[in-house]
Amino acid sequence: MRKICVLGAGSWGTALSTVLGKNEYRVALWGRAEDGVEQISSFQENRRFLPGVVVPDTVKPTADMEEAITGAEWVVLSVPSQAMRAVLVQAKQYLNPDTYVVNTAKGLEIATGMRMGQVAADVLGPEISKRYAVLSGPSHAEEVGRAIPTAVTVASSCKQTASLAQDLFMSPSFRVYTNPDVAGVELGGALKNVIALATGVAYGLGYGDNTMAALMTRALTEIIRMGESLGGQTITFVGLSGLGDLVVTCGSRHSRNRRAGELIGQGLSLEQTLEQIGMVVEGASTCRIVHKMAMERDIEMPITRACYQVLYENRDPREAVLYLMQRQRKNESEDIGGFSTDWQ
After folding, report:
1. CATH placement of domain 3-180
2. 328/48 Cα distance (integer angstroms)
3. How many CB atoms sit inside 10 A of residue 163's CB?
4. Element of type H or E holding 61
5. Hey, which CATH number is domain 183-325, 3.30.930.10, 3.40.50.880, 1.10.1040.10, 3.60.40.10?
6. From residue 130, how far is each of 88, 95, 159, 252 by CA, in Å?
7. Of the candidates 145, 229, 285, 293, which lies 20 to 30 Å from 108 by C-alpha distance?
8. 192 catalytic, yes or no?
């Protein structure tokens, strides 16, 4: 039985371990002892991060990274984006030259603005790019763990690596598409978290579906603007890892980012919100770096800017919404093209 290592025993790492275990791989699920990873063996359930999901016998939890990685053909990275570099530095000594790496984190590194693929190349060397893939899309761990039908995208600069990763994860309830656009897939997964926070704030203020639809649609324009400037392809942002992930993260009760936004809209501070959520809210950190990059590149991202001001500059959320509604009048298509300019 082939061995797969999953680094990160949070909700997503546990859900993916369940998928891989049911695909009849031998899975080593690594996590920190203080997070209770070893208790998963006792209960066949991650009671802290993914309660109610039965972890297969083929999944063996461990707090020993060397034990987890040794002999693994694939290493799946399911740690928060801000922890990615430190985990890769620790893992590097145990990786074989022919080991494949799949990233599933959705965020940008605050200190550098790097995507996770760029962080991996920075730590492991540029040669990792041919054996590196990113898996992303509309996929809440709570539903994946329960085998609810889900479709995602796996991207790699190497077609063979993308195909091998597709075969690795594909199952009757987990459909995987391939994509050559690593930058676009990683950026779509990161940028949509900011918008989910903004949507949550709107719901927390008591606004409804009209507001959510407006935010999501106009935010997609912002994602495309920033994504294209960082090397992503437009078509990727209207696919599963862009629009698909945006829809599920903004609209689902499972979304930590949306829930965090709701609490802020109801009057809690960012610090109080993060404490109450109790898990990583990627959108909060991503908002900081994306706002900075937008300012540096002179990219218009009014929703992201408003979200940043609410999170980090104590701007009143209702005032931020009013600002968005009263901005200068515009033609809907002028930002992204697509309509004829011959308009009489």
Report:
1. 3.40.50.720
2. 47
3. 15
4. strand 59-62
5. 1.10.1040.10
6. 17, 15, 9, 35
7. 145
8. yes
The domain limits of the chain are 3-180, 183-325
Of 106, 192, 292, 330, the active-site residue reads: 192
For the CA atoms of the chain, what is the radius of gyration?
A: 20
**How many Cβ atoms are within 10 Å of 130's Cβ, its own excluded?**
12
* Helix, coil or strand: residue 37: coil
pLDDT of residue 335: 59
The upper half-sphere exposure of residue 343, i.e. CA atoms within 13 Å in the direction of its Cβ, equals 7
Instruction: Go through the chain and tell me how many residues it has.
Output: 344
Distance between CA atoms of residues 279 and 257, nearest Å: 10
- CB burial of residue 86 (10 Å; 0-12, 13-18, 19+): exposed
Residue holding tokens 């609810």? Answer: 148
Q: What is the mean pLDDT of each run of 10 residues along the chain (344 residues)?
A: 96 97 98 88 93 96 97 97 97 97 96 97 97 98 97 98 98 98 98 95 94 93 96 97 96 92 96 92 94 96 96 95 84 62 60
Name the token pair of 225: 């603007």
pLDDT, position 253:
83
